[in-house]
Design goal:
The chain is α/β, with parallel strands linked by helices and about 300 residues long. The chain is built from 12 helices and 10 strands. The strands form 2 sheets. It has an 8-stranded parallel β-barrel with strand order 3-4-5-6-7-8-9-10, surrounded by 7 helices. A two-stranded antiparallel ribbon has the order 1-2. Helix 7 links the parallel strand 6 and strand 7. The protein starts with a helix and ends in a 10-residue tail after the last helix. The structure holds 3-methyl-2-oxobutanoic acid (KIV).
Length: about 300
């Protein structure tokens, strides 16, 4: 457990016994669960404590991740790839993001839930951006939204913030712009792009973002930007000096296959483990080994 987890979280459930007619009902209630807020993240940056963030798109996965003690769950538009099998993040809709986000929110007791505004819901139209963010907050119960881009979308960011909705920025490789970039390679290797990224980061901070994701940029630039900001940076391929790290959960658990960027550490190889389990099940069903007499009524 990290320092903030032990100090801030009273996760010990207490048992209440309610006598209802002749039945005794045991209810497990989490008392005094101190929720992670955007302010907690700022305190962590100020204290030099790293921030952990992972993606989730459904109730079951979000429950495991939240119970494990993550600081932030991102309902990323990577759901478009991971859950729906699209090649890019562009096709996912606002309604679909709200469906994923509300499933995650129902599972979460402690961590901060941030939701991506999907492509086409905020670019070039700050009123539309605000309406999209309001729909996410109202219909899913999430705590913040994330938008990709810098100066190009600053009006949208500012308008959402003015409505009291916390915004996380996202710079570097912004997958919603993949057709502009043409490739998923490292961004901001050239000084002109690096300089723009530095300016964008400061502008996003100035307008009121509570944190910024830095995706796939040189580690030295990640360090520079993180040190120049008073708000936390969260890296994904942004080097070890970001104030926090994020990975796509299905990648780090090895559920996705054939995706091996340098920044990805796989903590499990679940694709093969799950496939083996399914193969065993099929074989047991076919042979009549499952179910046994004990597995029936
Ligand atoms: O959609 C997503 O999962 C993301 C992370 C990769 C940062 O934006």
């Amino acid at each position: 457990m990290t320092q903030s987890q032990t100090e801030n979280v009273g996760l010990i459930p207490w048992t209440v016994v309610i006598l209802h007619h002749t039945m005794i009902i045991h209810m497990s209630i989490s008392k005094d669960v101190k929720r992670i807020t955007t302010h907690t993240l700022q305190e962590m940056k100020d204290a030099g404590e790293k921030i952990s963030m992972l993606t989730a798109y459904d109730y079951s996965m979000a429950r495991i991740i939240d119970e494990a003690g993550i600081d932030v769950i991102l309902v990323g538009d990577s759901a478009s790839n991971v859950m729906a099998g699209h090649e890019t993040t562009l096709p996912i809709t606002l309604d679909q993001m709200i469906y994923h986000a509300s499933s995650v929110v129902r599972a979460v007791k402690r961590c901060l839930v941030v939701v991506d505004l999907p492509f086409g819901c905020y670019q070039g139209d700050s009123k539309k951006a605000l309406n999209s963010a309001i729909r996410i907050m109202k219909e899913s119960g999430a705590h913040a939204v994330k938008l990709e881009g810098g100066f190009q979308i600053i009006d949208s960011v500012a308008r959402i913030l003015k409505a009291g909705i916390p915004v996380m920025g996202h710079l570097g490789l912004t997958p919603q712009s993949i057709y502009k970039f043409g490739t998923y390679t490292v961004r901001a290797k050239e000084e002109m792009e690096a300089d723009q990224l530095r300016k964008d980061a400061l502008e996003l901070q100035e307008v009121g973002c509570f944190a910024i994701v830095l995706e796939k940029i040189p580690s030295a630039l990640g360090k520079q930007v993180s040190e120049s900001l008073t708000i936390p940076s969260i890296g994904i391929g942004g080097g070890p000096d970001a104030d926090g790290q994020v990975l796509v959960t299905h990648d780090m658990l090895g559920i996705t296959k054939d995706f091996h960027p340098r920044f990805l550490r796989r903590y499990l190889e679940l694709y093969d483990a799950m496939k083996d389990a399914v193969t065993d099940y099929i074989s047991d069903v076919k042979s009549g080994e499952f179910p046994s007499s004990k597995e029936g009524y």
